[in-house]
């Protein structure tokens, strides 16, 4: 070994020692475990936070399915099965209608999810971030395209009213595809159906494992609504409450609506 | 379900308590500042909590945690939180107040010089140096943590070390085998 090489190794060894020495300067303290858990729960909850109102321009081919979902009349709408032949395209989302309906006053409601495939590199991530902007969908805590690499993003939007041109992002999340729910996991939240009202919280949107067989929504008046799972890419009337598996999503989703005069109490998952 | 959640919380707490000292030291080297290190560890472990089931089931939970920390560090740096750039003179993590012997004063000065030099490295070089020489990771492990190629790790490490060696005070220290 040459003298230079010897000196070089010594230098790097010493840097390791100096780093260890410097690292000892930090005050360790006690791990704030309760604060960490609270913070972790907040992070989970943020996926369910009502995002800032963002107008969604229903346009282009991805909007076609959405319009179909509302235009067919009462009880006859059918969600077209997503085409399995579509190559993963990070520049536009898979859109799946989770539920629709029409209130006695004539207003339509419509809940759908946009699932964006995971970009494979920073360039794809940047392109996807720009595309999301065109859809009025802005992921929380993401500032650069590279933040999206390897992660699926989803946006659940709700539209309400006589017109059907706009949806508002109600739930958003960005996470690795491997972070799927399992067993009887259940993440659900409720909100007023009418965005201009303060309640009651009749509209329930939830996410469960793909293996979930059924979800029972319990209402505060003691009644329940049971939703069964429908296989992916299956034609099922979108105004029939059901557990649906959106194309590209690691989880299944459901939407159910409380009867007039009551509101959401809880949701229970039935597993195989 | 409640029992399972409680069990998960208990497991997570045990994990966090066990890893906290090491994570704090790594974060301190990455950020150069006590409070920034605390924030980085907090952010990292919160994200670990969110994905706890997956982390707990992983063969190498530490690798996942390192990756989260490096990502969080990189993200913060991109947001240009400038406190990462240079240690502050009044920061309690820098131990200026240690003064009971001349040797310890000099030791504190050396630490400060190293932390300052580290803080002046570009973030990717800093991450590479810390992962390779403090975490003692292989180039492959460091590449996984940084989400880059082994070649990029080699390059960032070499550049980082070269810059550290160019610091006059550090050059003297390493030339003489480091302070004991």
UniProtKB/TrEMBL annotation, chain A:
Name of the protein in its database record: Uncharacterized protein
Keyword tags: Membrane, Transmembrane, Transmembrane helix
Region (Disordered) location: 177-199
TM region(s), chain numbering: 48-70
From TrEMBL, chain B:
Keyword match Heme: no
Transmembrane segments: none
InterPro entries: RNA_pol_sigma-70-like (IPR039425), RNA_pol_sigma-70_dom (IPR014284), RNA_pol_sigma-E_actinobac (IPR014325), RNA_pol_sigma70_r2 (IPR007627), RNA_pol_sigma70_r4_t2 (IPR013249), RNA_pol_sigma_r2 (IPR013325), RNA_pol_sigma_r3/r4-like (IPR013324), WH-like_DNA-bd_sf (IPR036388)
Pfam families: Sigma70_r2, Sigma70_r4_2
Family annotation (Gene3D superfamilies): 1.10.1740.10, Winged helix-like DNA-binding domain superfamily/Winged helix DNA-binding domain
Domain RNA polymerase sigma factor 70 region 4 type: 112-164
GO biological process, one term: DNA-templated transcription initiation
This protein's GO CC annotations: DNA-directed RNA polymerase complex
Any one GO molecular function term: sigma factor activity
Domain RNA polymerase sigma-70 region: 20-81
Annotated keywords: DNA-binding, DNA-directed RNA polymerase, Sigma factor, Transcription, Transcription regulation
Keyword Protein biosynthesis: no
Record CDD domains: Sigma70_r4 (cd06171)
Family: Belongs to the sigma-70 factor family. ECF subfamily.
PANTHER family per the UniProt record, alphabetical: ECF RNA POLYMERASE SIGMA FACTOR SIGM (PTHR43133:SF50), RNA POLYMERASE ECF-TYPE SIGMA FACTO (PTHR43133)
Protein name: DNA-directed RNA polymerase sigma-70 factor
